[in-house]
Amino acid sequence: MTDLSAIQGWIANVQSTLSGLPAAFAQAARSGDFAAVLAEAQSALASQPATAPPAASPAGLVASSALSATGHSGQSQPGPPTSAATRAAAGGLTAAQVVSTAEQYLGVPYLWGGTTPQGFDCSGFVQYVYAELGISLPRTSEEQATVGTPVPSLAQARPGDLVFFAGSDGTPSAPGHVGIYLGDGEMIDAPQTGETVSIQPVGVPVEIRRVLPTPPATTWTGQAGSSPPSPGAPSQPSPSATPPPPSLVPLFDSAARRYGVPARLLEAVAQVESGYSTTEVSPVGALGLMQLMPKTAAGLGVDPLDPAQAIDGAAELLSRYLAQYGSLALALAAYNAGPAAVAAYGGVPPYPETQSYVQQVTSILRGAA
User: Fold this and answer.
1) What mean pLDDT is reported for the chain?
2) DSSP 79-103
């Protein structure tokens, strides 16, 4: 039976490659190095979905995909569709929502011309994140550097601002790279071939643009004596890394070596799941340090109330999900909500608990880095 999602993903990859060719060739013309451009285009066109498409030549699919992607004008269409509810809420969009959405794609591989969670280039990543939140941005970093309002300096930048860099394929007037500013001197971006969406020092941008709508003035009605939150701040502070009890450290280290996952990832999951309590029982019946459901624990062959076995079971699950999705955010979402939910929504499910869970664990990992 044909896997429709695999075919759609393959077509999306081809569409992204075709739409990015003009800009890529223009950049390559400066140095005369067209080999990398042609190699990436050839790779995308030669790739096949996990389940081969029905009898139709790749050339035919590429041609029809290109026509549907560009329309009569030849201009690429906006980023991924967003729900009416999301678009309606865009006027109240906060920096925290931008940061949270962007961090869901940590670990997604860089793909030249990529505009989907199967692979992003720098501007494709920025465009996708903002499109999910109801804001349409142009496709390339050069075009994105013309939208919104300029921010004079990094000292005045806010989380959610776009930061641009000359890069090896651009100039200050035509930036070749873009990321999303996270605050505290950090940004999140899709760096380059061979790397993944990641958080790194922002460096020295050549341009900064603010595309978030200005929030309306509101009257603070919080508890007496408390201060209003700063603009764009989350309603609750992000958790910071708390060291595990010394007795658990060897167990995390051992499971990390056995299953090839970072010990600090296991620690962060345990911190969020149970606060390092080995006897925790959730309202829905999840048990122990790593909050494994009894059925899941039985499938793994572990006792969820035994710390060593629970950590081993969690490490096995996370190793499996990281290999399956190639994305930390999706692996965490599968751990929290189950792989069926991730498959049903094609990404992190829109459950507030799951989205908060992913954000909390990644925030702890950032603080522990």
Assistant:
1) 75
2) SS---HHHHHHGGG--HHHHHHHHH
